[in-house]
Design goal:
Layout: H1 3-24, H2 27-30, H3 50-65, H4 72-100, H5 113-121, H6 135-153, H7 160-177, H8 186-191, H9 195-209, H10 217-231, H11 234-258, H12 265-275, H13 277-297, H14 305-340, H15 350-371
Helix pairs in contact: 1-3, 1-11, 1-12, 1-13, 3-6, 3-9, 3-11, 4-6, 4-14, 7-9, 7-10, 9-10, 9-11, 10-11, 13-14
Length: 373
């Protein structure tokens, strides 16, 4: 399947994932006047599954992006351009709000150097970062670092893309077999985690569709996921089943969207939300929290719970979409024009270095022979 054919279902998946996470956080809107809580409801086992969907989609997209074998530096530049500006802006906003009024803080923010520096650098932490929803980006950035390493070391090795999927699934399996590594080191806990099964599934979906040596990788990764589900304890096992569900949803969306000619009005709206999903994801906590504080001050009746959840989530979508159109997308285009489309030349691979050195040695030997009488 072509990249264009997959664009619409990918945007739908992004939209649904962002909306699901937002609804899961909607208690921020009502906790000051209503005892009803979605996080204490029957939906709890599935709450926040949009995060796992994001991870599977990310794995798929990174496999798609790297199919053309871009340089490692070019790949990293694209990821930096995509993630950093908006995330830094919202992280700075959290700190600024705390400086203005210490009561205006998100989650358990503490004004200390180490957590603030770690947040700006996307470094693994034991707790939530300054911007609470940024915890998922800590895993994303580690995944991107592994992809960059793969592009640097073995971009032209044909079986390498399938082998990389096995590496990702292996990290997920390690996280199942050795739970609690985050208590030893946040780096170990973030690197050996079942969440890497999500990246592995998404990567495998794309690689399997390319044919060649990677055609059989999806069943292998799925079998590793099934084994993890059998070996895992209750907590890790629950996460594994959520990741399996997310992988199934992504695969189903790809299959249904493959024959899609043109989406209707609802499909186009959902695709628009998908394009703005990063802005919505980063900003929704602010919107829901602010509206919730206003609702608490207004002393609303408990009967306003559901209407306020609907109105508040709709407002968060509008704000996030506006941020995408007015800030994120124009900034991305400007950075591209300034040369952030990718760094050229890209970092040389070891194979390229060996070829270059071999050529230099051969030329030197030839020159020496010509000079001899």
């Amino acid at each position: 399947m072509m990249q264009a054919a997959r664009n619409v279902p990918i945007q739908w998946l992004r939209a649904l994932a962002a909306l699901e996470v937002m609804v899961w956080h909607s208690d921020l809107l009502t906790k000051r006047f209503s005892d009803a809580s979605i996080q204490d409801s029957l939906y709890r086992p599935f709450g926040g599954v949009g995060v796992e969907v994001f991870f599977v989609v990310s794995g798929f997209l990174m496999a798609l992006v790297t199919a053309g074998r871009p340089g490692a530096a070019s790949f990293v530049a694209g990821r930096v351009r995509r993630l950093v500006p908006l995330y830094w802006a919202f992280t700075s906003l959290v700190i600024l709000a705390f400086v203005i009024n210490p009561r205006w803080h998100l989650a358990d923010f503490e004004p200390a150097f180490a957590p603030i520096a770690s947040a700006y650098l996307f470094l693994p932490q034991t707790g939530f970062p300054v911007l609470p929803v940024g915890w998922t980006l800590e895993y994303e950035v580690l995944f991107y670092a592994l992809v960059a390493g793969f592009l640097l070391l073995a971009p032209a090795w044909k079986p390498g893309r399938a082998a990389f999927a096995l590496l990702l699934a292996g990290l997920g399996l390690l996280g199942v077999l050795f739970p609690g590594l985050d208590t030893v080191s946040p780096w170990l806990g973030h690197l050996a985690t079942p969440y890497f099964f999500g990246f592995a599934l998404g990567w495998s979906l794309q690689v399997a569709g390319e044919g060649g040596p990677g055609a059989a990788i999806l069943p292998v990764v799925s079998a590793m996921l099934a084994a993890a589900a059998l070996l895992a304890g209750p907590e890790a096992g629950h996460l594994v089943w959520r990741i399996a569900l997310a992988g199934l949803l992504v695969a189903l969306a790809m299959r249904l969207g493959a024959g899609l000619a043109a989406p209707g009005r609802g499909g186009r709206w959902l695709a628009t939300v998908g394009e703005a999903s990063y802005s919505i994801y980063l900003s929704h906590w602010f919107v829901l929290s602010i509206v919730g504080k206003l609702a608490g001050a207004a002393d609303l009746p408990a009967g306003a719970d559901v209407p306020l959840r609907i109105a508040g989530c709709l407002l968060a979508v509008i704000v996030g979409t506006g941020l995408y159109r007015l800030v994120e997308h124009p900034l991305d285009r400007r950075l591209r024009r300034l040369g952030w489309r990718g760094l050229r030349p890209s970092l040389p691979t070891p194979a390229a270095l060996l070829t270059y050195l071999g050529t230099r040695v051969a030329r030197s030997d030839l020159t020496e022979r010509v000079r001899r009488p």
